[in-house]
Design a protein that fits this description.
527 residues, alpha+beta, 3 domains, 9-stranded antiparallel β-sheet, 3-stranded antiparallel β-sheet, 17 helices, 14 strands, 16% strand
Length: 527
């Protein structure tokens, strides 16, 4: 067998180990590309990255391989990230580890010079990985509100009567909801990808490429605002059908083309204001016909034991992670269906159940949605959403992201400490034990209506206000306890009145209900 054939065999071994380790991750990633329109461009990222690598074949042929043992450490660290992501139900960790493993393999087999040459194609693969849901929601909801405000302003300037509540635009003949799909994040991600590729092809200066990529952000936001405004104007003059179906989809494509033309104008402005005066280099013969790895440049170590070591590490890691991610061991608990209707002085009644569309978004395994009323006629709403496992990708949604979608805007937000009892004493039936919990408290407003919202995340007896720390604890507990069960607890109290005293009364009522309800949670949310 020739040396070149041995090298290809070594690479095939590494590729086989990679396929064994990342089979499920890649299958889920491709599934998301096909089902999530925000990332449908993911199908183009890998072919473009492969082309960028092939384009560098001349430079790779001239480089001298100097394998670095540090690469094996990078591979092992990335595999650890994969394991944490699999156990902790964090898809982003499992996917970002792909880039770490690829980087480590290049470094371990070929060395730093090869890694520098392949740095841009490897970094380009970042665009195929969906943003974590916890960050995506932080971006998408503000973009929805921004597009809604832009549309409202444009409609007012066009003389169209309009009223906006959050991301809902109310016209005389219909209402338009600027949903997540209309937030502009889809066109933003796609346009950013296009800007990076376009800048790489058309520009040689790195600062110009970066400027063009950054310019895609305001361009995408402006273009989406125009789309929302145009949809509103069409719905007013033509009818509600103009805001849905073919016309709605076609407007998306049309606005994306307009956005690209705006991006092209930005590039021409850069070229006009700061022309590239550096002489163009003529491609060398090495860039046109040489194979990426000529046999004369292949050290024995690349095609030998190093490839075998990497392949073994990947396969053994796949076995270890598969065994560790066995079914979760969640302790017995009482069903939320038996959660008491009477809590101290509070009397409860069931609120409306969520429809299947909302349940599909929430991904919750079991929930309680009730209204509790005190003898003083003060009412509070209680929502408990329990997730027995988050490894299937269903994660908790922050009320701070969801409420603005219904038109509610936070006007005051803080974290407060509430003293609570930890349990109900079996002998006396009275609250027992004491602890302090830190929770989120918000005042939200829609029009003239206000509400006080208290919420937190609870898992394994731990109360967490921050959704970021909640996700970190999920990963840690998944590794330590083999559990990802958790719950979102939310209490809402309407503000009756417009003065500060009314807000204070609502805050006191929400806090009093929280203290009455908390000691019971241990029976339904296992510690």
């Amino acid at each position: 067998m020739s040396r070149y054939a041995k090298h290809l065999l070594a690479l095939a071994l590494v590729a086989a180990g990679f396929a064994v380790l990342y089979r499920d991750v890649v299958v889920k990633l491709v599934h998301d590309w096909g089902t999530d329109d925000n990332y449908s461009h993911g199908f183009l990222i890998v072919p473009i990255a492969l082309y960028l690598m092939w384009e560098r074949r001349g430079r790779l042929a001239e480089a001298v391989p100097r394998p670095s043992n540090l690469g094996l450490g990078v591979v092992l660290g990335s595999v650890a990230v994969l394991g944490a992501g699999v156990l902790g139900a964090e898809l982003f960790l499992t996917r970002i580890s792909i880039l770490g493993v690829l980087t480590g393999v290049v470094l371990f087999l070929y060395g730093w010079q090869y890694l520098r040459i392949l740095a841009f194609p490897l970094a380009f693969l970042l665009l195929m990985i969906p943003i974590p849901a916890i960050i995506f929601n932080q971006i998408a909801f503000p973009l929805q509100l921004l597009a809604s405000r832009f549309g409202e302003l444009a409609l007012m300037l066009a003389g169209v009567p309009v009223l906006r509540e959050g991301n809902v635009i109310i016209l005389s003949n219909t209402s338009l909801e600027v949903a997540e799909a209309c937030s502009g994040i889809r066109s933003l991600i796609s346009l950013l990808t296009l800007a990076i590729v376009y800048g790489y092809v058309i520009e040689r200066r790195n600062w110009a490429r970066v400027t063009l990529a950054l310019a895609s952000i305001p361009v995408a936001i402006a273009a989406n605002g125009v789309r929302v405004a145009g949809t509103g104007i069409a719905a007013h003059y033509v009818g509600p059908e103009a805001a849905q179906g073919f016309f709605h989809e076609f407007s998306g494509w049309l606005v994306f083309i307009v956005a690209f033309l705006m991006l092209f104008a930005v590039q021409r402005a850069i070229a006009w204001l700061a022309p590239d005066r550096a002489p163009r280099t003529v491609p060398q013969p090495a860039d046109s016909g040489l194979p990426a790895f000529p046999p004369s440049r292949l050290p024995a170590s690349v095609g030998g034991y190093r490839a075998i070591i990497v392949a073994l590490v990947l396969v053994l890691s796949a076995v270890a992670i598969g065994r560790a991610s066995k079914s979760e061991s969640v302790p017995p608990r009482e069903s939320l269906a038996t959660f008491p209707m009477d809590l101290a002085e509070w009397r409860g009644q069931s609120a409306d159940r969520f429809d299947q569309r909302i349940l599909a978004v929430l991904g919750v395994d079991e929930y309680v949605n009730r209204i509790y009323t005190a003898p003083t006629n003060v009412s509070v709403g209680l929502y408990l959403g329990y997730y027995q496992s988050q490894r299937a990708g269903d994660t908790m949604h922050s009320p701070l992201n969801c409420l603005p979608g219904a038109g509610w805007q936070p006007v005051k937000q803080e974290r407060v400490t509430i003293p609570v009892a930890t349990r109900i004493d079996a002998a006396t039936g009275q609250p027992a034990g004491q602890r302090q919990i830190v929770v989120n408290r918000f005042i939200i407003q829609r029009g003239l209506d206000k509400q006080v919202v208290i919420y937190w995340y609870q898992s394994h007896g731990r109360v967490v206000a921050s959704e970021y720390w909640g996700k970190i604890y999920t990963v840690v507990d998944a590794i330590r306890l083999n559990r990802t069960d958790a719950a979102l607890v939310r209490v809402i109290c309407p503000v009756s009145g417009s003065d500060a005293a009314a807000e204070e009364r609502a805050e006191q009522a929400a806090t009093a209900f929280t203290r009455a309800m908390f000691p019971l949670l241990g029976r339904y949310l296992p510690e």
